[in-house]
Amino acid sequence: MSLGWTLAATDGAARAGKLHTAHGSVPTPTFMPVGTAATVKAMTAEAVRATGAGIVLGNTYHLMLRPGADRVAAFGGLHRLMDWPGPILTDSGGFQVMSLAGLRKLDADGVTFQSHLDGSRHRLTPAISVGIQHKLDATITMVLDECPPFPVTEEQALASMEMSMRWAALSREAFVPREGYGLFGIVQGSVFPDLRRRSIEALMAIGFEGYALGGLAVGEGQATMYAMIEATGDLMPADKPRYLMGVGTPDDLLGSIARGIDMFDCVMPTRAGRTGRAYTSRGVLNLRNARFANEDGPLDPGCTCLGCRRHVRGYLHHLFRAEEMLGPMLLTWHNLTYYQSVVAGARTAILEGRLAAYSAAVRAAWAEGDLR
């Protein structure tokens, strides 16, 4: 039996369900913390679990370069290596390779590139990428695709999409089916609805355990991103999970959940945490700001993270001003906890048929701002 997904409830286009895998089940909607190089930056695996996360993401490009897929396999795979027994989704490496610009050469069969670490030459094809993800023991493998830059002409987007669909078929051929494991196809087509519809039709003809929307959140703007989700939503299989790659802010998550998306990942909460920016129920706060130096109260009173339960705002501010590593650690923990609370709240709201009211209340609190 391959990886599966079951629907629990709908509220408009929004869906509450459960992802079933060889490494456990995960309620959806879900947000996946990004563990690019077999670690979520500034976090232990135990801390990631404490945020409420049920699935994490790793990256083929970074892991194939360091420590190497064979070495990860020798250690027993990513689950054992990074102390994460739950599901792991691995990005195919395509996005990172395509962003190397002068360090890569694209052809019809794949891409040859130089490592950003030491200049060594490497090759990625659909079969090689899927094979590396197999060695990593990824619960969810992603097909190799080309993510075109933005903006791009419709002609360029068409050529890129058609090549990605050929690579998707080759990825399917290379994937080794195992009980509770799955391969996701990736919809491409940039900001052109017809191309995205053609892409999802091609992917469905091949058949995948899940379907991802790629090539978004690359500068096209939220309204256009939502339009692309809507252009493909009705065409996607109702019994398969839908994954919006690389998204996004809490507001992006709420808007995309309302349009039928089940899975998300983004570096935003961890990156922000390392630079002193906190996502809270009252909006985004910059803990480096001098106004927090004397504030004797939790960062976000309703939050269950370690930083909010055990420390005051003035201490968090001090940690960043003193450049102590504990500051980024605590704020990353907080941001991931907040993201998990947003998607968990959305799931409960879908089950109870009140997603619109929930989203409106969350956004109203952001707009009201910090009350201190």
Describe the structure in your own words.
With 372 residues, this protein is α/β, with parallel strands linked by helices. It folds into two domains: 4-266, TIM Barrel (Alpha-Beta Barrel); 273-368, no CATH class. Helix content is 41%, strand content 19%. The chain has 15 helices and 16 strands. It has helices at 45-50, 60-65, 69-74, 78-81, 94-98, 126-136, 154-174, 193-206, 222-233, 250-257, 268-274, 306-310, 313-321, 326-351, 355-368; strands spanning 4-11, 14-21, 24-28, 30-32, 56-59, 88-91, 104-107, 110-114, 121-124, 140-142, 182-187, 210-213, 242-244, 263-265, 277-280, 283-286. Strands 4-14-13-12-11-10-6-5 form an eight-stranded parallel sheet. It starts with a strand and ends with a helix. The model has no long low-confidence stretch (mean pLDDT 96).
Q: What does this entry show, briefly?
A:
The protein is an alpha/beta fold and 372 residues long. It is built from 15 helices and 16 strands.
Task: Annotate the secondary structure layout.
Layout: E1 4-11, E2 14-21, E3 24-28, E4 30-32, H1 45-50, E5 56-59, H2 60-65, H3 69-74, H4 78-81, E6 88-91, H5 94-98, E7 104-107, E8 110-114, E9 121-124, H6 126-136, E10 140-142, H7 154-174, E11 182-187, H8 193-206, E12 210-213, H9 222-233, E13 242-244, H10 250-257, E14 263-265, H11 268-274, E15 277-280, E16 283-286, H12 306-310, H13 313-321, H14 326-351, H15 355-368
Parallel strand pairs: 4-14, 5-6, 6-10, 10-11, 11-12, 12-13, 13-14
Antiparallel strand pairs: 1-2, 2-3, 7-8, 8-9, 15-16
Helix pairs in contact: 6-7, 7-8, 8-9, 10-14, 11-14, 13-14, 14-15
